[in-house]
Amino acid sequence: MTVILNDKKYEVADSISLAAFIESLGLKPQGIAVAIGDEVVSKELWASTILSDKLEIMLIHAVSGG
């Protein structure tokens, strides 16, 4: 199936969780926030959030500095 992350399409396995998808991208959960649609998904729910075909996901990296 296909999911869309920050306007880029990714082919993923059926029934993959949000946590597994983030891990498959080589990303660490520290310092990132994820929204599906207009709703932020708390990190506690990533493992139980199952992605669906054509789902649009927004990932934001926190940046520190001044």
Walk me through the structure:
With 66 residues, the protein is mainly beta. The chain has a single domain, classed as Ubiquitin-like (UB roll) (Roll). It is built from 1 helix and 5 strands. It has a 5-stranded mixed beta sheet with strand order 2-1-5-3-4, with no helix packed on it. The protein is globular.
Task: List its salient traits.
11% helix, five-stranded mixed beta sheet, Ubiquitin-like (UB roll), mainly beta, 66 residues
Helix content: 10-25%
What is the count of helical runs?
Answer: 1
Largest sheet: 5 strands, mixed
- The outline comes out as globular
Within the CATH hierarchy, at the fold level, what is the topology?
A: Ubiquitin-like (UB roll)
Order of helices and strands: EEHEEE
Q: From the alpha carbons, calculate the radius of gyration and give it in angstroms.
A: 12 Å
Strand order in the sheet with the most strands: 2-1-5-3-4
Task: Give the N-to-C terminal Cα separation.
Answer: 40 Å
Strand content: 25-35%
Overall pLDDT score: 93
